[in-house]
Design brief:
The structure holds two protein chains of two kinds. By secondary structure, chain A is α/β, with parallel strands linked by helices. Chain A has two domains: 203 residues, Rossmann fold (3-Layer(aba) Sandwich); 160 residues, Glycogen Phosphorylase B (Rossmann fold), CATH 3.40.50. Helices cover 41% and strands 16% of the residues of chain A. Chain A contains 13 helices and 14 strands. In chain A, the strands form two sheets. In chain A, strands 3-4-2-1-5-6-7-8 form an eight-stranded mixed β-sheet, sandwiched between helices. By secondary structure, chain B is an alpha/beta fold. Chain B has two domains: 284 residues, 7-stranded beta/alpha barrel, CATH 3.20.110.20; 86 residues. Chain B is 46% helix and 11% strand. Chain B has 17 helices and ten strands. In chain B, helix 3 packs across helix 4 and helix 13 runs parallel beside helix 17. At the A-B interface, helix 11 and helix 12 of A face helix 13 and helix 17 of B.
Chain lengths: 384, 388
């Protein structure tokens, strides 16, 4: 099987969640004898094709402008949207001239969907579209430019991979797509046994009981719900410290809110953190909280669990469909969120149980499983 | 062949979410009377009234029809407080206790796990209080004992014998490795084992459309019973089987109504009670070296004490004992006893989180973790507010 995978990012060439996913998916698929050309925008470290292994090659596509990975403004004239269009045009131009005989096109999210649709028609081969998040998950005021591309993508794709049932339902409802066309393939976790950290970060957190929030600090991640719950937690556990790691457009308003609730002494805002700092925080945290209002999957929850940290998460997250040894609440139910956080902090038996059992569950969610499920979708798309 | 039908009737007091309220009154602080009443009303209308009325009619019409009930003290209290009509329907059984068609079993007043406490004072005291209540309500003194969820071990049996009971019930668990259709004696009491297969055919499988024997008819069930070899079969289940676990539209009431009539027509089968059966046959000796119950596949105490959270909660519950003087502060003592209902620990079970249909079905909580946190919050608050 020979796949043209239309990507956007790939570590170490810029890495967000999408890049991490593509990295592990392509590596695992290539181990299972699936041949993949992975396309991505070129950058100064990747100017010509790079063979990763016998089955996997990264192929850069030259772009005119520098681009930003996230939309800056809701406007079609912003550099971001024109870069996406530019990239897709370049992708199509290059691939359509290609003499390689691909069996199938696989695109991730809306970013490369426009060229995938055109290539499907050009080569007359099946097109599989993975949806990691819809525009409706990313923001409460969806950008029509993206909605239109997403709509086209899910309509034109032969099969759609959704990262959770929740995402499947969103796609089906928002874009009127029949559910038969959407397969759920949950994310895996690449779990490597970390050595005990030599280095210590954030030394002021030493010996503190820590409740951790990690992720982009944006509306979608529910930072305000986290803060309101924190206020209630502090009534019961006065010495608890809350760490909010990450940055985002809601960071200033989040800090203001913490100040107005008179909790600044109990909060640390780290800003952007490195992977090592992140692992350090997972390790020292007593409980990890995912307060997202809409989280198509929520891989950080599995990461925290892999570091033996009990998790409190919202029902509106894909990961709540797979992880049973977790404390689950509605994002708006501040009382329940605080009740659960206090419960883990107060009762060591609950803490022990969750960390032990969640880890067992996480160890079973491997990328091999994701790759095998993905191959099933490929085969179905190919009519095998 | 004797056939004993025994139905268990129990409803716990539901607990409040401690973190969502701030009542200072002891009862109002921990017990959710509103929810308890709602559930009691629902179960009364769906099960207690229609099922008991069917049975009362059968008892009246067929003098050879017999039935065994066990009521917890808390369920009788609830009937009295919430539904006088239900209480009256239950006490209408008195007439048939006199004719020896109905037997009432002894058990703990609060459906507690006090039999698993290291110290047996509380266990004994709950049995005695239950006996008094049954005497007052039905004018009957139970002579057969069933412990909470048929939890049984030698020590429990010895205690029941000391309190004057003649026989005791438990589960015919597979590993006991004996024929459950015979009478045994464990050195303390005569022992009757539940036929769990035939019991679960009604209790669990009756409405299951994927079951190979679906639909279960009274004729079919009568054939199964009459083909058994042995002295008796003990068919026991929660009373809520009728109308609550299996809804009316499954045909369960029709089954309840026709089965006794079918069985009465069968020459090989007689209806019997525990008391009657226990004195009718010679008993074989038996020694059971573990704690047995009728719960879960393990048929042991793991439904309530299977994980470290349940064990911690149970230890906490027991640790309050020494801080309570039963004679000095009756209200506090009663609250502690209401908190002992095994249900509160059952909700904390995490047996295969993905596949705990039975535990989830009965639980008012979204997860065993919530059940644990709330129960511990209540125990700790109770200790701090009333016992320190």
């Amino acid at each position: 099987m020979y796949i043209a995978m239309l990507g956007w990012e790939f570590p170490p060439f810029f890495s967000g969640g999408l890049g991490t996913h593509c990295f592990f998916l392509t590596h695992t698929l290539s181990k299972l004898n699936i041949k993949i050309d992975f396309y991505l925008p070129s950058n100064k470290n990747l100017l010509k094709p790079k063979k990763i292994n016998n089955n996997l090659t990264l192929i850069p596509i030259t772009l005119l402008n520098k681009f930003s990975p996230y939309p800056q403004k809701h406007s079609q004239s912003s550099p971001f949207s024109s870069n996406v269009i530019n990239y897709n045009n370049s992708l199509f131009t290059m691939l359509s001239k290609n003499i390689k005989k691909y069996d199938l096109i696989h695109a991730h999210d809306w970013l490369t969907a426009p060229s995938a649709i055109k290539l499907k028609k050009h080569f007359k081969i099946p097109y599989v579209q993975t949806i990691h998040a819809t525009e409706f998950d990313r923001t409460s005021s969806p950008w029509d430019f993206i909605v239109q591309i997403e709509k086209n993508a899910v309509e034109q794709a032969d099969l759609i991979i959704a990262v959770s049932k929740m995402t499947k339902n969103t796609i089906s409802e928002k874009y009127s797509i029949t559910k038969d066309k959407i397969q759920v393939v949950y994310n895996g976790l690449f779990y490597e046994k970390k050595q005990q950290h030599q280095k210590t970060y954030f030394s002021h957190l030493k010996n503190k009981r820590i409740v951790l929030f990690f992720g982009r600090i944006t509306e979608q991640k529910g930072p305000f719900y986290f803060i309101k719950a924190a206020k209630k937690v502090l009534k019961n556990n006065k010495d608890v410290h809350f760490v909010m790691a990450g940055t985002g457009d809601s960071l200033p308003s989040t800090i203001s809110k913490v100040i107005s609730l008179n909790m600044l002494d109990n909060f640390t805002f780290t800003g952007f953190i490195t992977q090592e700092e992140r692992d350090f925080l997972y390790n020292i945290a007593d409980v990890y909280v995912l307060s997202s209002t809409s989280e198509p999957f929520g891989i950080t929850v599995l990461e925290a669990a892999a570091f033996n940290t009990p998790v409190v998460l919202t029902k509106t997250s894909g990961v709540s469909e797979v992880l049973k040894s977790a404390l689950i609440t509605d994002f708006w139910d501040i009382e329940k969120m605080a009740f659960l956080i206090n419960g883990v902090l107060n009762y060591k038996q609950l803490h022990n149980f969750l960390k032990k059992e969640a880890k067992k569950e996480v160890e079973k969610l491997t990328w091999d499983e994701v790759a095998l499920e993905t191959i099933k979708v490929y085969k179905k798309a190919l009519g095998e | 062949m004797e056939t004993i039908f025994y139905f268990q009737i129990h409803q716990p007091y539901r607990l409040k979410w401690l973190h969502l309220q701030n009542s200072k009154s002891l009862e109002e602080r921990y017990l959710n009377y509103q929810l308890t009443e709602e559930i009691f009303n629902k179960v009364s209308d769906k099960c207690y009234l229609p099922a008991t009325n069917i049975l009362l009619d059968l008892l009246e019409e067929y003098p050879d029809f017999k039935i065994v009930f066990s009521f917890t003290g808390v369920v009788l209290d609830q009937a009295k407080i919430f539904r006088e009509d239900v209480f009256d329907t239950f006490t209408a059984l008195k007439k048939y206790i006199k004719t020896q068609q109905v037997e009432i079993l002894g058990e703990t007043y609060f459906h507690s796990l006090s039999s698993l406490f290291p110290n047996y004072d509380e266990f004994k005291s709950q049995i005695t209080d239950h006996t008094k209540l049954i005497k007052k309500t039905f004018n009957y003194s139970p002579s057969s004992f069933r412990n909470t969820e048929l939890i049984y071990n030698k020590k429990i049996s010895k205690t029941a014998a000391e309190l004057g009971f003649q026989s005791i019930l438990t589960e015919g668990a597979d590993d006991i490795n004996t024929d459950c259709n015979f009478l045994y004696n464990d050195g303390n009491l005569n022992l009757l084992l539940r036929n769990y297969k035939l019991s679960d055919d009604i209790g669990y499988r009756f409405s299951s459309k994927v079951w190979s024997e679906y639909p279960l008819t009274s004729t079919k069930y009568t054939n199964w019973l009459s083909s058994l070899n042995g002295q008796f079969s003990l068919i026991a289940m929660d009373y809520e089987t009728f109308g609550e676990h299996h809804w009316t539209d499954t045909g369960i009431f029709n089954f309840l109504n026709t089965l006794p009539k079918q069985l009465l027509k069968n020459k090989k089968i007689n209806f019997s009670t525990v008391k009657e059966t226990a004195t009718k046959f010679p008993a074989k000796n038996i020694t059971i070296n573990r704690t047995v119950s009728w719960a879960d596949l393990e048929r042991d105490e793991s439904a309530w004490l299977g994980n470290e959270m349940q064990q911690a909660a149970f230890r906490k519950l027991y640790s309050l004992k020494e801080k309570i003087n039963p004679h000095k502060d009756k209200e506090v003592y009663t609250m502690w006893r209401k908190l002992q209902s095994s249900d509160h620990l059952y909700y904390i079970s995490t047996k295969s989180l993905s596949d705990q249909d039975v535990h989830n079905y009965f639980s008012p909580y979204n997860s065993p973790f919530e059940a644990f946190i709330n129960y511990m919050n209540i125990l700790n608050d109770f200790e701090k507010s009333y016992l320190d």
